[in-house]
């Protein structure tokens, strides 16, 4: 049974041969995680090893020796009225989906694809 079939059967409660799992390297996973490429024109206002701004305008922070991704400390929509001025990242550029498309095309193990931050503009690459 492929990983893709295993996950589908688990979602549909159809009794896969085992429970699907997602362990970090060097172990295995039934999932293939892909994401869009960053906007090459994005210029963060803040970028250090322990504090940085992401494309959504959120500021992340982590402790100096922290091996996690840290946590969001501030974000642009902390006040509802900020929505009037908020500019969403542009995900209409097909170039933002090229790495994900190539990764998916190399999916010879037939893993179940988990696509993050995808919009209708990238759907043809992961369906």
Name the features.
alpha+beta; 127 residues
Draw up the topology in text.
Blueprint: H1 3-11, E1 31-35, E2 51-53, E3 59-61, E4 71-74, H2 98-105, E5 112-116
Parallel strand pairs: 1-5
Antiparallel strand pairs: 2-3, 3-4
Entry summary:
This protein has 127 residues and is of the alpha+beta class.
Structure description:
This protein has 127 residues and is an alpha+beta fold. It has one domain (32-121). It is built from two helices and five strands. It has a three-stranded antiparallel β-sheet, with no helix packed on it. The two termini are 20 Å apart. The relative contact order is 0.21.
Major beta sheet, strand line-up: 2-3-4
Strand content: 15-25%
Gross morphology is elongated
What is the first-to-last residue Cα distance?
20 Å
- Can you write the helix and strand succession as a string? HEEEEHE
Tally of discrete structural domains: 1
Oligomer: single chain
Kindly report the average pLDDT value.
87
Low-confidence parts, pLDDT < 50 over ≥5 residues?
120-127
Largest sheet: 3 strands, antiparallel
**Estimated helix fraction:** 10-25%
The Rg value, from CA coordinates, equals 18 Å
Work out the number of β strands. 5
Question: How many DSSP H or I helices?
Answer: 2
Q: By helix and strand content, what is the structural category?
A: alpha+beta
């Amino acid at each position: 049974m492929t990983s893709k079939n295993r996950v589908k059967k688990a979602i549909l409660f159809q009794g896969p041969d085992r429970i699907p799992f997602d362990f970090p390297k060097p172990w295995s996973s039934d999932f293939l995680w892909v994401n869009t490429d960053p906007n090459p024109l994005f210029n963060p206002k803040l970028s250090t090893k322990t504090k940085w701004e992401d494309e959504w305008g959120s500021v992340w922070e982590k402790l100096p020796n922290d091996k996690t991704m840290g946590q969001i400390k501030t974000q642009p929509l902390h006040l509802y009225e900020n929505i009037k001025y908020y500019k969403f990242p542009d995900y209409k550029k097909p170039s933002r989906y090229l790495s994900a498309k190539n990764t998916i095309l190399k999916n010879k193990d037939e893993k179940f694809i988990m696509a993050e931050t995808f919009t209708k503009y990238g759907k043809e690459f992961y369906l």
